[in-house]
Design goal:
The protein is mainly alpha-helical. The chain is built from 11 helices and 3 strands; from the N terminus they run H-E-H-H-E-E-H-H-H-H-H-H-H-H. Helix 1 crosses helix 3, helix 6 runs antiparallel to helix 7 and helix 6 packs antiparallel against helix 10.
């Protein structure tokens, strides 16, 4: 099955070897796998990838290496390149999260990611209240105030950047390196929600207040309140997106 169509004009001058072209092909094949257009067991060849996208063998090989590192495909002698079963995918890889959110299965991915955030972020906030540095506590308060300003102004692009920084800092300052490793994934879901028009023009006051409550609780070292306030943020997300 065809994975995507990429304009040949992109490769006219560079034989398909530019970083931009590599990313386009990687994204196209990745989304095809994530969406099920290329289901588990599908076989690919370097020659087929070359022909479909008009790229060099080197770029085709590099693309497959990235997909193999994510456990989306595996290669075997005399068999070729085969799409892996879903249970073997590296579902925490931010690129895969991005591709799944760009596919027609995005609702399932939003639901699972929101449930993961509900399980992790409140505990991370409690950890930040106990372990964050003075500078991190002060920065969270600054970011919450900036979210209020940008949210009320309806500046969603700037709001997204600050929201990502807020949640990244919360995870980074909690003192748990496994939670911190999820920051890229959280950034992807926040970005996707905005880019796909799933954010209201102006964020709800309840959400803005909850971010301020989290920051204030972390700043004063109130782990219980920090955990509760993050639950409020994520419950609002779940309700707003109609997730079960």
């Amino acid at each position: 099955m065809s994975t995507a169509t990429v304009q040949g004009a992109d490769t006219a001058d560079d034989d398909g070897a530019s970083p931009a072209m590599h990313e386009r092909v990687l994204k196209a094949v990745g989304i095809a796998i994530a969406s099920g257009a290329l289901p588990p067991g599908s076989r690919l060849t370097l020659e087929g990838i070359q022909a479909e996208y008009g790229i060099s063998r080197t770029v085709a090989r590099d693309t497959m290496k990235v997909l193999e590192s994510m456990n989306l495909v595996y290669s075997r002698r005399r068999v070729g390149i085969v799409v892996q079963e879903r249970g073997l995918w590296n579902v925490f890889d931010p690129k895969l999260v991005r591709w799944r959110l760009a596919s027609d299965r995005r609702e399932i991915q939003y639901s699972s990611l929101t449930e993961l955030r509900i399980a992790v972020e409140p505990i991370a906030a409690a950890g930040a209240a106990r372990r964050a540095s003075a500078a991190e506590r002060a920065r969270l308060v600054e970011l919450a105030a900036e979210l209020r300003r940008l949210g009320e102004a309806g500046d969603l692009k700037a709001f997204l950047a600050v929201d990502i920084e807020f949640h990244r800092l919360l995870l980074q300052s909690c003192g748990n390196e496994m939670f911190s490793a999820l920051e890229g994934m959280v950034a992807e879901v926040l970005t996707s929600r905005t880019q796909q028009g799933l954010m209201p023009f102006k964020p709800r006051n309840e959400a803005l207040q909850a971010h301020e409550d989290v920051a204030a609780a972390v700043a004063r070292g109130d782990a219980v309140m920090a955990e509760t306030a993050v639950h409020h943020i994520l419950n609002e997300v779940r309700t707003a997106m109609g997730l079960r």
